């Protein structure tokens, strides 16, 4: 039995996470230990639940209520995951949903989920079972859509973990998790403070046994299919900001600079597209579908 609450007024404080709170306000939501985030669509919500995230509430449009709850219940049963229990489910009609910002982009149910504390670097690396891991470092990648697309490629193409600098977009932003199709909940990841990264990030990776490959164009840049890269025991692939790219210090301190061979007259790709090609070449793919 679901805990359904039919909403007659969008001014209800129960709807604050969906209607009035910004991403930053959700991150620092009162009454929570680590904040909240919004997961959008049954697929994303299901993957968050499967990964152990707990829902504070759900918001569902009345005309798709049966469909969305059936999808969620089915996924929970198939994956032997605890269901929604007595989680409040707020139901609004199609007229009310049109008053929500971005309503035309909605793809079914929304859930306000409790954040969990991210692991430190040592814990993250310990959680990776692969003895020859490939990880990605995202340095100041500020577009949430790019963050989501990179996570989706990382999960699909054999990247074992992701580290995100704190001056990047949040992987749990609503747009990030939506674009990732929930894969942000499947792959181990954590943040690193931007100042710490710039002061000692490469050294930290070296201490954990990783060699580093910065995606950048320099006189000594090698192709992503260079055989030396495949032989490395542990490899960290570093991707930079959409505009200026990686910091000069990051490039000069890295063990390799790597590039994607391209046609004459084009020297770069969008960071999300570049990540997919790099992960395809360098990731630990164990099987093909």
TrEMBL record:
TM annotation in the entry: none
GO molecular function annotation: RNA binding; RNA methyltransferase activity
An example Gene Ontology biological process: methylation
Pfam families (UniProt xref): SpoU_methylase
Keywords linked to the UniProt accession: Methyltransferase, Transferase
Domain tRNA/rRNA methyltransferase SpoU type: 135-279
Alphabetized PANTHER family for the sequence: RRNA METHYLASE, RRNA METHYLTRANSFERASE 3
UniProt-recorded name of the protein: RNA methyltransferase, TrmH family
């Amino acid at each position: 039995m679901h805990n359904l609450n039919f909403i007659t007024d969008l001014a209800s404080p129960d709807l604050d996470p969906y209607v009035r709170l910004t991403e930053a306000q959700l991150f620092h939501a009162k009454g929570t230990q680590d904040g909240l985030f919004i997961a959008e669509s049954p697929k994303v919500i299901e993957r968050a639940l499967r990964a152990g995230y707990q829902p504070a509430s759900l918001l569902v449009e009345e005309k798709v209520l049966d469909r969305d709850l059936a999808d969620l219940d089915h996924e929970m049963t198939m994956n032997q995951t605890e269901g929604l229990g007595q989680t409040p489910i707020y139901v609004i009609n199609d007229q009310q949903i049109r008053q929500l910002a971005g309503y035309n982009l909605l793809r079914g149910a929304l859930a306000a989920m409790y954040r969990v504390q991210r692991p430190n670097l040592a814990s993250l690396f310990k959680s990776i079972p692969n003895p020859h891991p490939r990880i990605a470092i995202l340095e100041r990648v500020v577009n949430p859509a790019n963050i989501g697309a990179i996570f989706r490629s990382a999960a699909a193409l054999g990247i074992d973990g992701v580290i995100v600098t704190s001056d990047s977009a949040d992987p749990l932003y609503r747009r990030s998790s939506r674009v990732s199709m929930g894969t942000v909940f499947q792959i181990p990841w954590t943040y690193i403070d931007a100042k710490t990264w710039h002061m000692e990030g490469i050294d930290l990776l070296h201490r954990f046994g990783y060699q580093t490959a910065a995606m950048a164009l320099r006189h000594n840049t090698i192709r992503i299919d260079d055989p030396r890269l495949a032989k490395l025991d542990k490899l960290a692939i570093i991707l930079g900001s959409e505009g200026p790219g990686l910091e000069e210090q990051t490039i000069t301190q890295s063990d390799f600079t790597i590039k994607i061979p391209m046609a004459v007259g084009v020297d770069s790709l969008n960071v999300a597209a570049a990540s997919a090609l790099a992960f395809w070449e360098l990731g630990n793919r164990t099987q093909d579908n």
